[in-house]
Amino acid sequence: MAILDNDGNRILAKYYDKNVFPTSKEQKTFEKNLFNKTHRANAEIIMLDGLTCVYRSNVDLFFYVMGSSHENELILMSVLNCLYDSVSQILRKNVEKKAVLDSLDIVMLAMDEICDGGIILDADASSVVQRVALRTDDIPLGEQTVAQVLQSAKEQLKWSLLK
Amino acid sequence: MNSFISRNSTSSCKPTRGGNPFQNLEKTTVLQEARTFNDTPVNPRKCAHILTKILYLLNQGEQLGTMEATETFFAMTKLFQSRDVVLRRLVYLGIKELSSLAEDVIIVTSSLTKDMTGKEDLYRAAAIRALCTITDGGMLAAIERYMKQAIVDRSPAVSSAALVSSLHLTNVSGDVARRWANEAQEALNSNNVMVQYHALGVLYQARKADKHAVIKLVAKLMRTSPKSPYAACMLIRMACKLLDEVDKGDELLGFIESCLRHKSEMVVYEAAHALINLGRSCTKEITPAISVLQLFCGSQKPALRFAAVRTLNKVAMSHPTAVTACNLDLENLITDSNRSIATLAITTLLKTGAESSVDRLMKQIATFVSEISDEFKVVVVQAIRALCQKYPRKHAVLMNFLSAMLRDEGGLEYKAAIADTIIAVMEVNAEAKEAGLAHLCEFIEDCEHNSLAVRILHLLGQEGPTSKQPSRYIRFIYNRVILESASVRAAAVTALARFAAACPPLLPNVLVLLSRCQLDSDDEVRDRAAYYCAILQQQNEPTILPLVQPPLLSVPSLERALRNYMQTPMDEPFDISQIPPAQTVEEPTQVEVHTTVKQQPRLTREESFMEKLSQIPHLTMIIRDSSLLKSSPVFELTESETEYNVKCIKHTFTEFLILQFDCVNTLSDQLLEDVRVAVEPPEGYTIVCEVPCPRLPYNELGTTYTVLRYPEDVHASVATIPTTLRFMARDCDPATGVPDADQGYNDEYMLEDLEITLADQVRGIGNRGVDFNAAWEAAGAKGFNKLEETFALGSSVTSLEGAIQSLTGFLGLDAVERTNRVQSGAAAHNLLLSGIFRGGKEVLARARLALSDNQVTMQLTVLCQDPDVAELIISSVG
């Protein structure tokens, strides 16, 4: 499972089979390769290096799910859809690189909820989102202590001065 | 930018212009920051952010040392104080990531166990999964009770997590799944689809060793048909596995077929795929699957179309007719925007299509062949190869297409596939030879792959001299000598020498070229040139051809024979004909797409037997001074389902015949001892020794040997030997295999008769590239005995191919110069055979076959230095 940006760089990736691409170098070459093959044509599915890869892109993000060539393509597709939909819900339909990086923690948790050690844990986006306990960013003021609010205000001021 | 800052207000990392706050992270800085974890009270936002950074680094492939990992891990444990949900979840993630790197990870067990049994559902599922990654065999017992509870928990998340974790735990301790099977059984009845799927996984893991339990499990679920599509897919896979193992399974088959009507596409596809991949399925079974796939071909979703076409492509290999129904749908897919789908569609069509559509299809492929990846190009090439075999008349179109592909860019694998195809086409189709050679010549003009160039040069050397105009290839080959690297130059020199040897008119010119090569900078090239110059200048007879193209001998055998020869006084010249030829590895005809199977360089069958035989002390005396001529195919002396199973392999040496009996005892309550196969030697044969098998437990392979000496008179060597299995049987406990205390009893078991045939004593030498006519004349000159007779072959043989097959099988001789291939529609054929009778006696035979009214008449001429052998061969045909 991988999310790449529009230059083919890895944002998040998780490989569950240690026999396929054991080192991160091999993983990255594979990702580059995959990206080069897929970024032009939006064709949803491709076979590469003996793996079946299904993919989907949005703005500047590419979502991939890879499986062995014997795997049922539709199962892979269901995982991909789940991944995409969960991320989309987490980011409130705002699926782009910056948003993913801003909520990287939640996206990581979502990936963890979808697949655990190579076994599909859940393929229903709404239940994944529910399980990662989406942090509602609008109410943190109430939760934060006064000191924290003050500190964040201070920091904001500092940054705007620095600019 | 402002909004960005506000979100990461507490972060100390400076945002970069690209907007990726994680871009320029330094491992050491981040690990420094991890000290913040120790602050009290914990600042959840800040810590969550730092933890995210650590996880991001790990995800990018950053390596942490054990020390660093352990330190971070311990810092992380402090975060359990915070109650922030996201932070806690990130901690779990961190534990999982670091568990393999850090030491003493079990320290968090108690914290995790607490979370896992706590009230917060959000924690519990994730805690279970984290806990299981840090659990080792010793700790398993401590958490077992909690796990069992978790499996049957009401919350599907918890239950799923526990089930999946127990699957992972089977790596730690094999019987986990079995111990928790009862709980999993309960979970199987859950309403949640995922829990059902995971429970099925655990149950299968628990029972997979026991076939009957799996059958029961599958049978039970088949009736209720699981709600979860994943579980259904898994069930189909289990059913398929069972179908492969057991003989009958109509119910299983029925279930898979019923899945074709499932409401989830995933399951439908899985079922169709399963039906098609089932080894024994026949057309009747796959037809419904194919009609389902046909529907998928028209689907909106590319993945579905891809899946369908890929599967159809596979079926097309085995059942092309069944796929013909989909041809129309497949043709629509040729223009698909997804190139992978289009390629698969075309190759499928190529396999199923009619001869008339070939031209059109080729044109369509040509339009997009440059856009697809190498892997798919290879698929296309393979399809073309199959096509060439099917429609030899179309070779001109296909050949042109291939040569165009050969000129395009591409990797070695792709180019090699094309070259292979061209060579294969040339082999089956004599008309295509000239064109093929011309294409290949052109290709090596600018071929950047040395290995391929060497292969093509070798081929040119072999095939070029027999073409209509050999001289035209000389220029291509000599160009290589000037332009290429050393290995290619050496190959080119050899090819040149072959031309000179085979075409005397070219000899003077080639000699000039070769003498220039003697000035080459590379040793190997110079050596070869000098060697060929020397022999080519010395004499000009057809007999020098074998010197120019050395036969492909099997190196280990040659080494052994030479070593033996060194120990003799070396009075007589070394006999090279004793050495078996190297085994040419037969190419598998249907190469699975995208799997590159690396063929190990392996010994020939004879050599591996020789190794095995020479390890048996009683036999070393016999086989030390002679080499194994031939090992016969396996011959069954019993029916396959009897109490004892005996197979025989006959190893022929110059004077001895070693019978290898492979015995299997299929009775679980018996232990056999001192097992031997008693043979009644027919007239002329004498038994030299017997090597019994001391113990033969249930279901294990034991081997016993009997050594016979061949009779002096070769006519007597073809015989039938009655055999009996003799052994001491002892009853034993079927479960443990420990025999009862009492003495066993002697028993015997009648086996079928063993036949020693002519073919056992003859080794064919077909692939040595012998010039048959030259050898035939040379043999006549050497005073070989010639016998000739005419036969009318029996009514069982109705075609020339059949006659050739039975004749080569019967005589043990191999066809040379590809005379085993009959021109289609021919009424007469000349079959040339050659081989060696035991004792190094060369045998040449020519069979003139004529077909009339489904009756084959044969005139067989045999040449052999030993008159008796020639007579034996003739008489055994009659």
From TrEMBL, chain A:
Keywords: Cytoplasm, Cytoplasmic vesicle, ER-Golgi transport, Golgi apparatus, Membrane, Protein transport, Transport
Single Gene Ontology BP annotation: retrograde vesicle-mediated transport, Golgi to endoplasmic reticulum
Subcellular location: Cytoplasm; Golgi apparatus membrane; Cytoplasmic vesicle, COPI-coated vesicle membrane
Principal location: cytoplasm
UniProt domain AP complex mu/sigma subunit: residue ranges: 2-135
SUPFAM superfamilies: SNARE-like (SSF64356)
Pfam families hit by this protein: Clat_adaptor_s
GO CC entries: COPI vesicle coat; Golgi membrane
InterPro entries: AP_mu_sigma_su (IPR022775), Coatomer_zeta (IPR039652), Longin-like_dom_sf (IPR011012)
Record's bilayer topology term: Peripheral membrane protein
Highest rank taxon of the organism: Eukaryota
Subunit-level organization: Oligomeric complex that consists of at least the alpha, beta, beta', gamma, delta, epsilon and zeta subunits.
Protein role: The coatomer is a cytosolic protein complex that binds to dilysine motifs and reversibly associates with Golgi non-clathrin-coated vesicles, which further mediate biosynthetic protein transport from the ER, via the Golgi up to the trans Golgi network. Coatomer complex is required for budding from Golgi membranes, and is essential for the retrograde Golgi-to-ER transport of dilysine-tagged proteins. The zeta subunit may be involved in regulating the coat assembly and, hence, the rate of biosynthetic protein transport due to its association-dissociation properties with the coatomer complex.
Family: Belongs to the adaptor complexes small subunit family.
Annotated protein name in UniProt: Coatomer subunit zeta
UniProtKB/TrEMBL annotation, chain B:
UniProt superkingdom: Eukaryota
Protein keywords: Cytoplasm, Cytoplasmic vesicle, Endoplasmic reticulum, ER-Golgi transport, Golgi apparatus, Membrane, Protein transport, Repeat, Transport
Protein name: Coatomer subunit gamma
Span of domain Clathrin/coatomer adaptor adaptin-like N-terminal: 26-539
Biased composition (Polar residues): 1-14
Region (Disordered): 1-24
Intracellular or extracellular location(s): Cytoplasm; Golgi apparatus membrane; Cytoplasmic vesicle, COPI-coated vesicle membrane; Endoplasmic reticulum
Family classification: Belongs to the COPG family.
Keyword Nucleus tagged: no
Record domain Coatomer gamma subunit appendage Ig-like subdomain: where: 609-757
Domain (Coatomer subunit gamma C-terminal): residue spans on this chain: 760-877
GO cellular component annotations of the record: COPI vesicle coat; endoplasmic reticulum; endoplasmic reticulum-Golgi intermediate compartment; Golgi membrane
Topological category with respect to the lipid bilayer: Peripheral membrane protein
InterPro entries: ARM-like (IPR011989), ARM-type_fold (IPR016024), Clathrin/coatomer_adapt-like_N (IPR002553), Clathrin_app_Ig-like_sf (IPR013041), Coatomer/calthrin_app_sub_C (IPR009028), Coatomer_g_Cpla (IPR032154), Coatomer_gsu (IPR017106), Coatomer_gsu_app_Ig-like_dom (IPR013040)
Subunit architecture: Oligomeric complex that consists of at least the alpha, beta, beta', gamma, delta, epsilon and zeta subunits.
A biological process from GO: intra-Golgi vesicle-mediated transport
GO molecular function: structural molecule activity
Coiled coil, from the record: none
Main function: The coatomer is a cytosolic protein complex that binds to dilysine motifs and reversibly associates with Golgi non-clathrin-coated vesicles, which further mediate biosynthetic protein transport from the ER, via the Golgi up to the trans Golgi network. Coatomer complex is required for budding from Golgi membranes, and is essential for the retrograde Golgi-to-ER transport of dilysine-tagged proteins.
